[in-house]
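Thanks for the sequence, V.! I ran Coenzyme A biosynthesis bifunctional protein CoaBC right away. Repeating your input here for the record:
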Amino acid sequence: AESLGLSGKRVVITAGGTLEPLDPVRYLGNRSSGKQGIALALAAQQAGATVTLIAAHLEVALPSAALTVQRVETALELQAATELAADTADVVIMAAAVADFRPDHAEGSKIKKRDDSADPVITLVRNPDILAGLVSRRNARGARQLIVGFAAETGDERGDVLDYALAKLERKGCDLLVVNQVGQDGQGQEKVFGQDSNQVLILDRDGSAPVPAEGSKQAVARAVVERIVNKIDAFQ
Ligand code: C5P
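Predicted structure:
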């Protein structure tokens, strides 16, 4: 058989948005269609990898391709599943939109609206940074594992997209950071979510020049996988 770039490699990819329960019927969620994560899973599989897709809430159907899929709901569930799978993986790609905060507790029964009761107050607590945690775990094991993060960035008066993205790459410690520039349409709505195409910069912690990739989410996924293949080749 033809030897592909990721033959014999185990790749873990997270996709979708986590849902953080408030009560049995309500949640706080992060917008993410899951399209980019699914495209990555298929591209990695096409490159010969054994892929595990860890999927939080998706707005699109899972592909019928023979992927190993693990469903999760909350950030803490995604963390547990990803850490376990990552322990034996060559590559981890964190494409999921993880909620930064969760309600400090979920009510056991539906929060009622009563005329005589005060409006509920929701207290949020911080979720762990799963990506940064994966980097620490990898470093503690001294494993040769490639870790890829995603970031949606906007520029502002204090810096441009690239400044913020480079700072994030440093802070998280991952090897590659795929940066989406979040655009605005006429209504001020963010443009990236749910769309079929994407425009990214792939940043590398080794300091090499950022690689732009643009086009369908499939095309972006292929560009990211190609970059991963080049990095993994340099490991050997
Ligand atoms: O800090 P920010 O949310 O912009 O970072 C985005 C990257 O970090 C993504 O790869 C996302 O999957 C990951 N992330 C995480 N845990 C969090 C928040 C984000 O792993 N709590």
